[in-house]
Amino acid sequence: MEKKTVKYHIPQNGIYMYARTNSGKTELIVLNSTNAEQVVANDHYRMMTNDSKSGKELISGKKIDLTKNMTIGARQSLIIEL
Predict the structure, then answer these.
(1) What is the pTM assigned to this prediction?
(2) Residues in Cβ contact with 76 at an 8 Å cutoff, skipping those fewer than 6 apart
(3) By CB distance 3.0 to 4.6 Å, which of 12, 14, 68, 71 could disulfide with 33?
């Protein structure tokens, strides 16, 4: 039987974040609900990344360094595969 989990983080400054795990694969979903670009401190999402140092943004294929702060554009969403 597959174990599926979802971890939610308390929204801060219009940034909503959750991580979902299915069959050993984890995706971090980040949503910016504001009209301004936001910088998200890595200590805000570190506990959701399962100590992963990097991930891949699924839409663009861009590598994301999870040891640094993350910049997310206005009204943007990211799906990062860890």
Answers:
(1) 0.87
(2) 31, 32
(3) 14
- What the block records as the tokens of 21 is 């795990």
Cα–chain center distance at 71: 11
Contact 12, 44 (CB under 8 A): yes
* Phi, psi values for residue 35, rounded to 5°: -95, 15
Per-residue model confidence as pLDDT tens digits over 16-75: 999 999 888 999 999 999 999 999 988 878 888 878 899 999 999 999 999 999 999 999
**Would you say 4 and 22 are in contact if contact means Cβ atoms under 8 Å apart?**
yes
Q: How high is the pLDDT of residue 16?
A: 95
Q: Residue 45: CB partners within 8 Å, gap ≥ 6? A: 9, 17, 28, 30, 66, 70
The answer to whether 13 touches 38, Cβ cutoff 8 Å, is yes
> Domains in the chain, start-ordered, CATH in brackets?
4-81 (2.60.40.1180)
Give me the residue label for tokens 């969403």.
Answer: 77
